[in-house]
Inverse folding.
């Protein structure tokens, strides 16, 4: 009369795709939210406020480009439509409202700065020390979180008007 | 089983209907046995007879097997169990049928366990919880020394999986309820066996996914204050995920998902040094396919 025990079938795999959502994508999502916010606090000169609002990326990672494109598909910068451009080299860089230089582009900032000199391009970087080397905004980590440092003077040098609100939100203000 | 039952029965004077029920049971005519039994049990003396209740328990067990073995809420099985326990209670002096009652009850207990195991899914898990509780309740009465640790681990691990599945597919209003239930289930497993790999890993994943969902669900034009608050919550959850993921890796350092998890957690916590350390470990394992460098 002994009855055999069945086994609990562990066939359900709810965690199989746990990391399908790449962590790079998540970090990129956070940065794009920041970028959209920067736009709210910065005013570009009139010749940058018509036509497309161009966000250029120098050798962008797939995650960052995907997030920017997803954002661009649903949002606008006021009346301007977002256009995302991935520049493979410094030579390719043309007129853009924002130029994002990812980590790992060390040494390129000086050249990029020369390339955009005299243009109203907001330079955003993510390498330690870049806010002192030409970038107006540099992404940093603070208390395990994504934060940013602001070099307001650098932005203003490019003809951009930075609201004091952004200064208050920056983790570090480079004077 | 039937012959043994009749042999024992032969020794005592009984209600004629009860004898007829025995005879029918012996011929495997359980439907007829049930009818005679019904008549027998109208007699107040028979209702106080431990053997009568044992016979009833036996006949209803056979009826359950015949008609309701696929019914997880079988009334026949419930009746059988109630009858067997009543027999045990009434038989406290002579103890003639106690062992047979216990054997039959154990058999039925295992059917509850099996129903719990086969029915554990996102639709029927509440019934599975009921069946597993019934299994334990019966076993505690008929085999008090039973150690439930290994069956509890299996049960709560699977229950945790079901709640996790429900959490991943829940509407936002119900998410936390399922998440808490899943955490409780995995913690039940870890209370029994702190080194249970799947429970550690699944808990780590629950916290990890909750952390990533918070950020993922942020709209692109959410303001920075709101983003900071979301990051605070996300970081806290990542830090809650971390010890379980580390423990998983410690228990199974070939588990690629644990390494991927640690890589992700440290990346999102902006701990570059640790991120690179686990990234390298993952690359090492992936480059040694079939010739694993793990311990």
């Amino acid at each position: 009369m002994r009855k055999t025990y069945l086994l609990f079938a562990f066939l359900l795999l709810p965690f199989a795709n746990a990391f399908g959502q790449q962590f790079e994508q998540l970090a990129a999502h956070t940065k794009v939210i920041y970028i959209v916010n920067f736009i709210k606090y910065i005013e570009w000169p009139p010749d940058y406020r018509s036509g497309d609002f161009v966000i250029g990326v120098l050798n962008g990672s797939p995650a960052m480009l995907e997030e920017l494109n997803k954002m661009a598909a649903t949002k606008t910068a006021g009346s301007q439509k977002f256009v995302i451009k991935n520049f493979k080299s410094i030579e390719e860089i043309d007129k853009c409202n924002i130029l994002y230089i990812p980590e790992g582009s060390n040494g390129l900032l000086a050249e990029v700065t020369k390339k955009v000199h005299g243009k109203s391009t907001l330079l955003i970087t993510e390498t330690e020390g870049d806010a002192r080397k030409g970038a107006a905004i540099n992404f940093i980590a603070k208390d395990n979180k994504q934060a940013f440092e602001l070099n307001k003077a650098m932005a203003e040098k490019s003809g951009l008007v930075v609201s004091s609100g952004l200064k208050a939100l920056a983790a570090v203000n480079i004077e | 089983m039937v012959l043994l039952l009749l042999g024992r029965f032969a020794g005592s004077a009984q209600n004629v209907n009860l004898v007829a029920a025995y005879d029918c049971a012996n011929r495997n005519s359980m439907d007829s046995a049930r009818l005679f039994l019904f008549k027998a049990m109208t007699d107040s003396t028979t209702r106080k007879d431990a053997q009568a209740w044992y016979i009833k328990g036996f006949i209803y067990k056979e009826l359950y097997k015949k008609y309701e073995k696929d019914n997880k809420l079988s009334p026949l099985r419930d009746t059988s169990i109630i009858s067997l326990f009543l027999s045990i209670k009434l038989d406290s002096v002579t103890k003639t049928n106690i062992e047979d009652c216990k054997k039959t009850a154990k058999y039925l207990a295992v059917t509850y366990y099996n129903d719990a195991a086969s029915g554990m899914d996102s639709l029927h898990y509440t019934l599975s919880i009921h069946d597993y509780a019934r299994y334990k309740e019966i076993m505690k009465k008929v085999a008090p020394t039973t150690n439930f640790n290994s069956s509890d681990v299996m049960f709560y691990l699977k229950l945790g999986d079901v709640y996790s599945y429900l959490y991943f597919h829940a509407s936002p209003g119900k998410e936390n309820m399922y998440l808490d239930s899943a955490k409780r289930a995995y913690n039940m497993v870890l209370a029994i066996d702190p080194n249970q790999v799947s429970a550690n890993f699944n808990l780590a994943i629950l916290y990890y996914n909750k952390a990533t969902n918070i950020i993922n669900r942020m709209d692109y034009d959410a303001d920075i204050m709101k983003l900071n608050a979301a990051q605070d919550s996300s970081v806290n959850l990542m830090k809650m995920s971390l010890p379980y993921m580390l423990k998983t890796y410690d228990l199974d350092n070939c588990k690629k998902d644990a390494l991927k998890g640690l890589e992700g957690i440290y990346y999102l916590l902006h701990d570059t040094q640790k991120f690179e350390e686990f990234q390298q470990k993952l690359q090492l394992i992936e480059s040694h396919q079939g010739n694993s460098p793990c311990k």
In short: The domain at 1-146 of chain B is CATH 1.25.40 (Serine Threonine Protein Phosphatase 5, Tetratricopeptide repeat). Chain B touches chain A through 56 residues (CB under 8 Å).
